[in-house]
Structures are given as structure tokens and as C-alpha cells.
Amino acid sequence: ILLSCGTWRRGGAVIAREVLILIVLFTSGFSSTVAQFKVHTSGTPVTAIYGQYTVLRCSFTVQDASSLEGLVINWQRVETEEVVYSYYYGKEQLSRQSSRYSGRTSLFLEELKHGNASMKLERGRAEDAGQYKCFVSNIKGSDQDTLSLIFAAFYKEPDFFIQLRPSGAVFKFETQGYPKASVSWYNEENEDISPLSETLYQQSGDGLYLLQSILEIGDANRSSSYTFRLRNDELHHSVSRTFVLSIEMKTSEAHARNRWLLAVTLLIAEFLIILVLVRAVYK
User: Fold this and answer.
1) Would residue 80 count as lying in a domain?
2) Is residue 50 located within the same domain as residue 147?
3) pLDDT value for 140
4) Are residues 66 and 119 part of one domain?
5) What is the pLDDT of residue 48?
6) Is 78 inside any structural domain?
7) By C-alpha distance, which of 74, 82, 77 is closest to 58?
8) Are residues 44 and 148 in the same domain?
9) 16-40: buried (b, 16+ CB within 10 Å) or exposed (e) per residue?
């Protein structure tokens, strides 16, 4: 601070004010440097697919090489506060990790210098769905952010069963996936006959839904086609199967069998009549 001697005595207050301004500027500059350290996750929910790996993206501010000094990265479940993954001063802290995530999580260690704190979660499960928190700390500061993880599973190729009855037929499709899918049935005129069907869901031990959809047709006296459709909106995945119920061969076989039975019956009746007549003559 350069002040003339003439202003030194009467400018004491001025000097104090100048010093105060400098202190405030220095302090605010230091605060802005610390405030620049930020942690960001993906703004949209992430989908984990059953049995596949998922990357939960997280990044932090990197200013220089010192940003890796004292680096701590902690991934945690928000709902249960379970430790999903912990990285402390250059080493993993697996002893703190929840057993549910043992052997399924890792960081991209070579990307830490670029501020990449993303976590790879392998072999996705239904129980993985929920809120996750990414916490990062180093000598520059600390911050955290959260993201949502959604679970989904592609529905398997459905198994088809058919049961013929005297009054009609019963069709059943079975498959497995997640979450609950929308199911519809159509006849050969492409009319929605879903109200005639019943769809059941049963959740298995791995969290997937076992889907059974049953359609009962009362009129099975002619050949006709039917279509089964399933849609998993979470994965934008659809399954459509069309099958034809052909009863012409079965009907002709039944007619042939009936004609044969009728012929045999007539022969037996004719034989009995002849036998009665012969016995009557010889009496």
C-alpha cells in the first residue's frame, strides 16, 4: 500500500479500510477456489440389466496433479447406507464393503487422473435397484451427488402349451423377466381378445417374474390363428408369437374312426341276426 506521509496521520482509517478490503478479497478468492471442486453423476436414471454389467457414472473436478492427493471415493446406498465400494488414499477398502456387492464392483483406476470416479457394477440383480451416492474428497475439497438405478430383465423365449378339450382349447404361454410386462391376445381378424385370457405373475427368488398367460377358446370347431404379444416397456422389448390351430386332420380322423365303428357295429348286428335265424330254422 503506497500512501504519502501527508495522508499517513489522517489516513489511518483509510489504511485500515484498504487492509480490510485486501483481506476480504484474499478470503473470497480462496473460497472460490475451494468451491470449484464439484462431483457430478448422470442426471437420468441408469438401467441395470439382469446378469449384465452397468456403469454408474460419476466425475469430480481435476485442477492439477495434486487433485489425486488424499483421494477418497466412496459409493454408498442412500436407503440403507451400505458401502458399495470404498477407495481410500490409493487403496480399496473391501473390508467395509457390503457382502451383497462383494466381487461385483470396481473403479476405472487409470481414469482417476481425469476425474472419473465411475463405478462398474457386474452381474446385475433385482436387489441392486435404488439410490446410490458418489462421495469424493481430496486436498481440494469434498462433494457428493446421487443417482437412481433401475433394474430390468429381458423376457425369455416363451414356452407354449396347448390342451384340447371337447368344448374347445386352452393355450398357455410361460416366460420370465422383469418388470411386469403387458400381455395381449388377438384372433385372426386382429381383434383384441385379451379379456378372454388370464395373466398371472409369480416372483421368484432372484426377483424375476414368472409370467403365465392363459387363453381359453370355447369354439374350436374350425381352424383359426391366434397371436400372443408381450411388451417390456422398461427395455422397449416386445415378443410376438402367432400360431394356427388346425383341426381339419383331427376331424377327418374322427369321422373315419366313427365310420369304422359304425361298420363294425353293423357287421356284428348282421351276424347276430343271422345267428338267430339259423338257430330258429334248426329248431
Assistant:
1) yes
2) yes
3) 87
4) yes
5) 97
6) yes
7) 74
8) yes
9) eeeeeeeeeeeeeeeeeeeeebebb
